[in-house]
Amino acid sequence: MPEGLPGAEVDAPSPAPSRRRPPPPFRRVTVIRTKPLTPRLYRITLNGSELEGLVVEQPASSVRVLLPSASDGSLVIPRWTGNQFLLPNDERPIIRTLTPRRVDAEKLELDVDVVVHDGGAASAWAEAAQAGDAVAVSGPARGYSIETNEAAQSDFYLAGDETAIPAISQLLEALPPSRPVHVTIEIAAPQAQIVLPDRPQTTISWRHLPEGAPPGETLVAAVADSDLGPQTRVWVAGEAAAVQRIRRHLFEGRGLARNRATVRGYWKYGRAASAGDDD
Length: 279
Ligand SMILES: Cc1cc2nc3c(=O)[nH]c(=O)nc-3n(C[C@H](O)[C@H](O)[C@H](O)COP(=O)(O)OP(=O)(O)OC[C@H]3O[C@@H](n4cnc5c(N)ncnc54)[C@H](O)[C@@H]3O)c2cc1C
Hints:
The chain is an alpha/beta fold. Helix content is about 15%, strand content about 30%.
């Protein structure tokens, strides 16, 4: 039966594909220095005139880092299709999310600290990076925000795994020095322990993940044992399944008000990241 006549089956109009706000454009940069902070955390310093205007206002924010092609090492800036990045050949580029640990607006430098682990593109890139290597960065995306007068009355509980060390370091630098901060960090190897920024009223507890245990196991246990007062603000980041358990514990188990905690999945066990994971 012809479309539009009574009795004809007319397909409901298909919903328009969802379009997301375009991310900030990629800025081409080059590696100028690399430094192992520990055998498991490499600091890569990026530099380039396109970093001009990159302003990171909040601690624990993020940037997307576009890595060169695994096959030929070329760096091609992808296009934004409305909901993902694609290369001219329609393949997905290698993009990873990292914390912009330090921005030097005068020298046009950006530090990212990358966890070295088995089988990851960013990890392999950080281990092999050399001065002159090209990458591109886009961002920053939102970080941790707290009203100054609220912060002045709060104490803070920060918890994370090795990927959260850069963000926790920034939070330690940014939170009001007069307020107490308790930190728990899970590390998968003793060499991952690092000296964190010094500040008064801070306690730091390192939890060692037993070999073979699922990532986040000691973090989940630590948060469950934590002493959270009525003014405590909580910030947690780490492996996605572990932080999901932490979310349930905090919001359903303890009934913590959602606006008192920021809980973010930073990576997924057994799955390579994709560019939209942190959105
Ligand atoms: C907002 C935000 C900020 C972040 N900041 C940082 C940062 O400053 N530094 C940092 O190193 N990471 C950070 N991460 C996490 C990082 O994006 C992921 O760990 C990412 O998967 C690393 O990419 P890769 O190419 O090395 O591994 P992928 O190719 O994504 O994964 C390959 C395999 O390695 C596993 N894997 C991924 N990460 C780890 C890990 N850390 N330990 C063990 N196994 C892993 C995966 O499960 C997968 O099986 C951040 C994530 C977010 C969302």
